[in-house]
């Protein structure tokens, strides 16, 4: 059978949900587990009222549908060329080439790769295997094996991309298994993701959270002369958009980045939330994503584009490149992601009640998927089902004698399992899985459905500096939950707090964030998350054109007087920049000369920065302390308030301090460009109080 031309409905009768529809589907008897996968679980009650799932395999294409949704993929590549739903012949962008509509990809570096950012590999399959074909479910596997003859071309991994469609489901699942074996050479993994590109003539309204929803400009608006490129390619000023409502706004995909812990459902609708069709990605777990719950990833953005990013170096830099040695054995399952479609005429009105928006229904579907996770119907034995997983329970408290002699509840704390390492190492861990939860008000926590293996237990508590790590390696085994009992986090402290700046919450969000330049705004962030606005790094030089920031700990307010980022200052119009030195002024009733004080500096992020610390002598050629060059987070340019958390403890000899007025000088010395700098999370000076002098 010939494949229909793009834009022609694949099977309109199927969308009428007639069980006898056979357009583009095989009428052959059901075949089960062709590829040796596990048995499919029984369908939910009422599912048999829906048409069976059917599969048609052709020379160049594969079509799978269930009477609600129909997906067309290339054979054997496994790229998504078409998605039919609700009478729309294709939800994917038809003006794109067939292999540029829905796909998995990686960016990697290795021998023979000369591109600075690495080589892009679309992970085109070479073989198709039907894992499961039965009335309740179809699962397809598109695989590619690496061989030495391919050196320097595709990424040196064995790839297995899976697609699953179930009876009665308004969507499909996709996941992938990556494997590096003893035959594979060394390389570095920079990025891997699932990319879906909805049609620009059908989807105009984007939603990534309850508060972050908006109509979006067209991709043509980004191209000159309608769009004016700004300081980097991703940021474009819309000067003559097709729809005038967007004129004067900045469009930049990084304005829509989200923390890992918040990426659960996002996607697109028509003109507004009351439009008839929604296109969503749903991930009830983040176990397979890199770098823990605070790591930031791209989500949906202009295009329209709908991403599931599993690993990237955004907001962390090269430190999160995943290195593989030659012959290193490794395997990981990314996903599954549920790609969900809804409509006001059908699913929303019938299953969720009238008046529910597409977004509300998508959130409701997230809850449904979360109850089903870990899924028991996936065909790969590399994906552990519930009885192959374990768990851990316990109770966490905080002990800081400066605040209380009693242990304190860890309000807002997060605790999780990640690969064994140093405290905080989970921020840069990517080869394994991570499992996190927010603790209860009383400090109790329970993490279930953890993949078997060896982990460390990590955590952090807002309001306290530092990282928690449980002393012993924890061995999670199937069908067993480990009770670790009462745990106590003792945050770093040498002496009493003499003064402090900010709130230790791993972000710079509490500091002064200026209003956006009115020439470079995003209307979504006028009254929320102001740091998402473009060009805020330029506002520092406007506020401090000659002299740098001076902060008095006794009289100033960090919410008003401490700029959220220590950046460089542009010098004239010749494209050069200079480093900046901030001053922290404080008084001591008495400076004890024979005592060491401790200056705690918690950084929320750094990008090509060098922080130098001097005390009472700004002209000293040698600083008391320097971080050296740190960080490639690029948070300043990417509209963030945190990247990789870093804590430094600087010993300040009492001989450098004097009775009365003192000054700490904080110099960000690297001045290569506008995005070099850092953001503070919290600063504290510890030492003896005059009312409680040190003992000799």
UniProtKB/TrEMBL annotation:
One Gene Ontology biological process: carbohydrate metabolic process
Signal sequence, renumbered to the chain: 1-23
InterPro entries: Carb-bd-like_fold (IPR013784), Gal_mutarotase_sf_dom (IPR011013), Galactose-bd-like_sf (IPR008979), GH-type_carb-bd (IPR014718), Polysacch_Lyase_4 (IPR051850), RG-lyase_II (IPR029413), RG-lyase_III (IPR029411), Rhamnogal_lyase (IPR010325)
Chief subcellular location: secreted
EC number(s) per entry: 4.2.2.23
Domain Rhamnogalacturonan lyase, first and last residues per copy: 410-482, 497-685
GO cellular component: extracellular region
MF term (GO), any: rhamnogalacturonan endolyase activity
Lineage: superkingdom: Eukaryota
The reaction(s) this protein catalyses: Endotype eliminative cleavage of L-alpha-rhamnopyranosyl-(1->4)-alpha-D-galactopyranosyluronic acid bonds of rhamnogalacturonan I domains in ramified hairy regions of pectin leaving L-rhamnopyranose at the reducing end and 4-deoxy-4,5-unsaturated D-galactopyranosyluronic acid at the non-reducing end
Alphabetical UniProt keywords: Lyase, Secreted, Signal
Intracellular or extracellular location(s): Secreted
Xref: Gene3D superfamilies: 2.70.98.10, Carboxypeptidase-like, regulatory domain, Galactose-binding domain-like
Family that this chain belongs to: Belongs to the polysaccharide lyase 4 family.
Name of the featured protein: rhamnogalacturonan endolyase
UniProt organism field: Linum trigynum
């Amino acid at each position: 059978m010939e494949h229909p031309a793009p834009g022609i409905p694949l099977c309109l009768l199927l969308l009428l949900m007639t069980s006898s529809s056979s357009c583009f589907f095989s009428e052959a008897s059901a075949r089960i587990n062709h590829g040796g996968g596990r048995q499919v679980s029984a369908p939910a009650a009422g599912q048999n009222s829906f048409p069976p799932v059917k599969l048609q395999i052709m020379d160049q294409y594969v079509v799978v549908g269930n009477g609600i949704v129909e997906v067309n993929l290339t054979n054997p590549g496994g790229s998504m060329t078409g998605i039919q739903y609700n009478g729309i012949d294709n939800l994917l962008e038809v003006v794109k080439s067939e292999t540029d509509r829905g796909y998995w990809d990686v960016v990697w570096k290795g021998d023979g790769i000369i591109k600075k950012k690495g080589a892009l590999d679309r992970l085109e399959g070479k073989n198709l295997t039907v894992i499961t074909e039965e009335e309740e479910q179809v699962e397809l596997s598109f695989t590619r094996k690496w061989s030495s003859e391919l050196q320097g071309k595709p990424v040196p991994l064995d790839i297995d991309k899976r697609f699953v469609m179930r009876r009665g489901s308004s969507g499909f699942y996709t996941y992938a298994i990556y494997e590096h074996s003893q035959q594979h050479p060394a390389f570095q993994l920079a990025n891997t993701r699932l990319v879906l590109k909805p049609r620009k003539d059908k989807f105009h309204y984007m939603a990534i959270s309850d508060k972050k929803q908006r109509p979006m400009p067209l991709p043509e608006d980004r191209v000159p002369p309608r769009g004016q490129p700004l300081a980097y390619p991703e940021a474009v000023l819309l000067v003559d958009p097709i729809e005038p409502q967007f004129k004067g706004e900045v469009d930049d995909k990084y304005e829509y980045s989200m923390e890992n812990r918040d990426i659960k459902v996002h996607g697109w609708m028509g003109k507004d939330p009351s439009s008839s069709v929604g296109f969503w990605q749903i991930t009830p777990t983040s176990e397979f994503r890199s770098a823990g719950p605070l790591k930031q990833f791209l989500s949906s953005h202009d295009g329209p584009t709908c991403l599931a990013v599993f690993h990237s170096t955004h907001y962390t830099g090269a430190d999160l490149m995943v290195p593989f040695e030659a012959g290193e054995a490794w395997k990981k399952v990314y996903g599954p992601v549920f790609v969900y479609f809804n409509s006001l005429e059908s699913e929303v009105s019938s299953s969720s009640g009238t008046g529910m928006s597409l977004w509300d229904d998508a959130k409701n579907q997230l809850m449904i998927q979360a109850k089903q996770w870990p899924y028991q119907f996936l065909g790969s034995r590399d994906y552990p089902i519930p009885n192959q997983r374990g768990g851990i329970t316990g109770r966490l408290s905080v002990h800081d004698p400066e605040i209380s002699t009693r242990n304190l509840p860890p309000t807002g704390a997060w605790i999780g399992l990640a690969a064994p390492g140093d405290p905080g190492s989970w921020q840069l861990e990517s080869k394994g899985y991570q499992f996190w939860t927010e603790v209860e008000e009383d400090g109790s926590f329970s993490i279930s459905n953890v993949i078997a293996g060896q982990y460390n237990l990590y955590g952090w508590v807002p309001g306290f500096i530092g990282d928690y790590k449980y002393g012993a390696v924890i061995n999670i085994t199937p069908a067993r939950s480990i009770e670790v009992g009462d745990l106590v986090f003792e945050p770093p402290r040498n002496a009493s707090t003499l003064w402090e700046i900010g709130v230790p919450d791993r972000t710079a969000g509490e500091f002064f964030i200026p209003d956006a330049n009115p020439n470079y705004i995003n209307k979504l962030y006028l009254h929320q998350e102001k740091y998402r606005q473009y060009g805020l790094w330029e506002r520092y030089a406007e506020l401090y054109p000659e002299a740098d920031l001076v902060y008095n700990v006794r009289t100033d307010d960090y919410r008003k007087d401490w700029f959220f980022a220590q950046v460089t200052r542009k010098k004239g119009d010749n494209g050069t920049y200079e480093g900046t030195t901030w001053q922290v002024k404080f008084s001591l009733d008495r400076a004890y000369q024979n005592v060491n004080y401790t200056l705690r500096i918690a950084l929320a992020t750094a990008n090509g920065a060098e922080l130098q610390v001097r005390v009472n002598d700004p002209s000293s050629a040698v600083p008391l302390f320097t971080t050296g060059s740190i960080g490639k987070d690029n948070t300043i340019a990417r509209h963030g308030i945190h990247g990789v958390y870093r804590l430094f403890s600087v010993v300040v000899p009492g001989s450098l301090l004097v009775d009365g007025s003192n000054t700490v000088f904080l110099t960000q010395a690297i001045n290569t460009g506008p995005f070099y700098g850092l953001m503070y999370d919290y600063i504290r000076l510890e030492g003896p109080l005059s009312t409680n002098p040190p003992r000799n």
